[in-house]
Every structure is written in structure tokens, then in C-alpha cells.
Amino acid sequence: MPHDPSVQSTAHPNDPAIPAFDPVYPLDVSVAAPTLAPISLAFGLFLLALGGLVTQWWVVGIGAVIAVLAAVAWVRESLKGSA
């Protein structure tokens, strides 16, 4: 885009320069390992809600078991990473 001389800049010449964005990430930040626990928890909660909606109690039971196991696995994984 060419410079338009009719546009006045609002920046003052004595203002400090804005540093350029540097997308370098610190190397000492720990990142959690990938896990299937959040997807499993969502699937278990989906089955739990679906079973309650269509009153199929065996689906509610399976969904509850999957949701509890996934939640426990997710919490254990997150605590293992913070130690």
C-alpha cells in the first residue's frame, strides 16, 4: 500500500519505539502431554445425557462409568505433570 501524504501521523517523534513482536517461547515452560481423557470425559457425559434423555438406563450407566474413569485419568495425568 503506497504512502498517502494527506494522512497525518498521530505519533510524536519523541515517543519511544514499540519493540517488534518476538514469537520466541521460553524453553522452561512445561506443557502437558497429549491425552484422550478430555475427549473420553466428553463422550461419557454425552452418553450419560443421551441415556437420560431417551430413558435407557444402561446407557446412563455406561456413560457414568466412562465419565468417572476419564475424570480420574485426567486428574491423575495433570497431577503427575505438576510434580
How are the SSEs placed, and which strands pair?
Blueprint: H1 37-53, H2 57-82
Structure characterization notes:
The chain is mostly helical and 83 residues long. It has a domain at 48-82. It is 52% helix and 0% strand. The chain has two helices and no strands. It has helices spanning 37-53, 57-82. α1 packs antiparallel against α2. It is elongated.
Number of strands: 0
SSE pattern, N- to C-terminal: HH
> Low-confidence parts lasting 5 or more residues at pLDDT below 50?
none
Radius of gyration: 26 Å
Shape: elongated
> What proportion strand?
under 5%
> Which structural category do the helix and sheet elements fall into?
mainly alpha
User: Total helix count?
Assistant: 2
Helix content: 40-55%
Q: Compute the separation of the termini in Å.
A: 52 Å
Report on the biggest sheet. none
Query: What number is the mean pLDDT?
Result: 80
In short:
The protein is mainly α and 83 residues long. It has helices spanning 37-53, 57-82. Helix 1 (37-53) packs antiparallel against helix 2.
Characteristics of this structure?
83 residues, mainly alpha, 2 helices
